[in-house]
Each structure stands twice: as structure tokens, then as C-alpha cells.
Amino acid sequence: MTHVGSSAYAAAGVDIEAGDRAVQLMKSSVKRTERSEVIGGIGGFAGLFDASKIARYQHPVLATSTDGVGTKVAIAQAMDIHDTIGFDLMGMLVDDLVVTGAEPLWVTDYIACGKVVPERIAGIVKGIADACVVAGCSLLGGEVAEHPGLLGPDEYDVAGATTGVVEHDAMLGPDLVRPGDVAVAMASSGLHSNGYSLVRKVLLADAGWSLDRDVPELGRRLGEELLEPTKVYALDALALIEAHDVHAMSHITGGGLANNLARVLPAGVTVTIERSSWQPPAIFGLVQQVGGIAENDIEATLNQGVGMIALLPAEQADAAVALLNGRGVSSWICGHVEAAAEPAGEQGTVELVGAHG
């Protein structure tokens, strides 16, 4: 059998040396995320995590989540800014995990690209590592795959997975939600990482706007707004869970507020959300206006300025808002839970009422 050397592999479009250089550049970023439980370092075949922490739980339940950034990567590529997209990946991963009550322990990532440009890959990983620090978890491992012919030289996609742990008796979920609970909203940092196929079609393709267009309503260039990193709530959400009797949490991602909130409701309840309790950031109204999109459609696609919702007893709501605001997470009471007039289906319902303030 003829051995295919690295020069032949390079001729096919795969640069092993560039991959090695990327690993060297990202080592310091990955090192910053290491929790005390991490064994070994970057470069092994698998990441190792000391599970004795989990063994100390009475009844540990492992939680896992996997996701990607989606078409927001097209904005990063067009603007040639790659060190913030990691927050979008991490937001989609750890904040889906934390709504169960689980503490994220580690993350692994996967970057597929048409050509390994070491500085670009290192920038992507730096963003993931920065977000890991914010979320309190380790970047335990990952993979960079070069796919010439499948992706263009400047194209890439980013995905990942996370694992966490929660005590069985501390899990959040629909079975804890009761009539009389209130909904506390946590502000999003913008579009987060959802609905970009719609946003790109409306603003870039159909309206023909450029990413360097100054948009007065936004107070900055369009590209800067579209690349705004996703807010990572993990440590703030865990602090809220530790301090208060949180019954359920919903991460508001693709599908909008009502659809995501309904996922954590038991049958027989309705959550009424008061639109008047907040004003969505300008980008949401801009997409709706320029695209001529009906309110129901925009609310079923974008987060409308709410990134996370917690359901908890009414008497704890003010203190919960104060805690979150004190941690720099803009929060407010946005609605309440009541018994459904006509219970139907396997989960509760959400009703958005009124107009935005």
C-alpha cells in the first residue's frame, strides 16, 4: 500500500502544519478555562474530567446539550471578526442545560472549515474559551476539521456539546410550576443566535443593506448589531436557583418566547405575558418593519428582547429581580401563571397580551 505523505495531503487541500499551528495558538485560551477537575491538557485523544465531584452528589443526574451557531457565522465571516462567535455557541449550549438546574461542567467544540487559517481558528476558540470562563465550565476538548472542496477557503461552521450535573431533587421542570407563580424575564443582548436566516434575507438580500451601513435606529453599523454576542446566563441563572425557589426556566431561542416557554409548562396552566412590561431593542422592530412581517410571525421567530424566563413564587419575584439586576442582568416581572380555563394537550399554554411599552 502506498503511504500518502503530508505533502500529498497538502496537495489535496489539507494543511497539517496549519492545523498544528492553530493548536499552538489556542492553547493559552483553552488553559484559562480549566477547572480543577480537568486532567491533562490539550492535545490528547480525549478530554479527561475527574468525576469524584459527581460522586459527592446524593443522586446525580447528568444533563447534556448539543447545538451550533447557525447562519450567524456568515456575518462573522463577512466582517472577518471571529473572536465573538464563541459566545453564540456557548449561549446555545450551556443556557439550554442550565434551565434544568444543572451546572455546566465542560464543553467540547467542533470547527469545520474549508481552509485552516491558524489565526482565524485561534480567534474562534478564544471566543469559546472566553464564554466558558463566563459560564464557569471547562473547554475540555475539540476538533478542527479541514474540508476543502466542501467549504470555501473562508467558510467555517461551529458546533459543540456540553455536559452538566444536577442533584435529582434539585431539578427544575414543569411538575413544579403552579398557578400563582410569576414570570421573571431576563433581557437578551440582541438577536442572540436565532432567526438569522430570516434577518439576513430581510435586511441583506431583500433590502440590499450592507453590513457597514450606519443605521440611526441602532446607533451603529448594521454588522456590529448583527454580530452582537449572545448573552450567557449560566452563572446568573444558577445564582438565582441557589437563592430562590425557582420552579422552571426557559431559554428563549429559535421559535420565540411563547413556544419556548410552553415547553416548561405542565398541562392545565396558562402563562399570560404582558408585552407592556418591556420594549424590544430596535433591531427587532427594524426587521419587522423592513420585512413587512406580522407581529405573530416575528414573535414566533425572534426572542424580542427576552433571553431567559424564570417561573417562581410571586412572593419571591421582587427579590429575584433585584438579585439579577445586581449581577448586571436586566430583569423584570413580565407575566403570571394561572389555571387554564380549558385545559388541553400535554403542556400548558402561553398568551401574549397588550402592546409593548
Automatic annotation (TrEMBL):
One GO CC annotation: cytosol
Keyword ATP-binding: yes
Protein keywords: ATP-binding, Cytoplasm, Ligase, Nucleotide-binding, Purine biosynthesis
Pathway: Purine metabolism; IMP biosynthesis via de novo pathway; 5-amino-1-(5-phospho-D-ribosyl)imidazole from N(2)-formyl-N(1)-(5-phospho-D-ribosyl)glycinamide: step 2/2
Domain PurM-like C-terminal: residue ranges: 178-341
Annotated GO biological process: 'de novo' IMP biosynthetic process; adenine biosynthetic process
Keyword Phosphoprotein: no
Domain of life: Bacteria
Gene Ontology molecular-function annotations: ATP binding; phosphoribosylamine-glycine ligase activity; phosphoribosylformylglycinamidine cyclo-ligase activity
Catalytic activities: 2-formamido-N(1)-(5-O-phospho-beta-D-ribosyl)acetamidine + ATP = 5-amino-1-(5-phospho-beta-D-ribosyl)imidazole + ADP + phosphate + H(+)
UniProt xrefs under NCBIfam families: purM
Protein name per Swiss-Prot or TrEMBL: Phosphoribosylformylglycinamidine cyclo-ligase
Record organism: Microlunatus soli
